[in-house]
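User: I'm curious whether this sequence folds into something compact or stays loose and floppy. Could you predict its structure so I can see for myself?
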Amino acid sequence: MSKSTADSRQQILDAALRQFAAKGYAGASMRDIIAATPFTLPTIYYHFGSKAGIYHALVESAHDEAYQRMQAAAARAPDLETQLVEIAVAMFDFVRKRRELTRLAFATAFAAPEELPEEVRDSRKRQRILDSFEQLMTRALKAGTLSRQFDARELAEGVYAAITLQVMRSLLEAQPAPTRRKAERMVRLFLQGAGLD
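Assistant: Here's the prediction. I'll summarize afterward.
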């Protein structure tokens, strides 16, 4: 993809995000999106095919960016506790920097079945994040870092839920994203319950 094509796509996505964040999927029209960009309807259709295609691209980008941040955070930490703290901090930073995009991803996850087109409700990318947590927990269990009273999936769901709850609270209560200190205490509490000595 050429730089100008990538720039055009990003301009459309940025404009669409503002419209969807302000009006929701049903309330934002293609006319609104076109008016917010320097592009014509054929150009937008060329890049995304439909309003659902634009929305889907936004939700996919949210999951991709969150996943990439999570992977980078885990890679720079030497042990499970530090990995989980770094992942939580990366997710909190994502909310801080990409609040509207995060809201859109959550809105999609909690939308009523008829509220959004089927193609934007795909949960495989959300599942990929949970699977990454499960891989971390599997390694920790094999290393004897965690108690075997819980399996890797249960542990992954527990820590993922704790991080997600903090993100949701930040969005719902219009509070700043949680701090590193909050991430450290949350992870320590989780690991103490999971059997870290």
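Summary: The radius of gyration is 19 Å. The chain has a mean pLDDT of 91.
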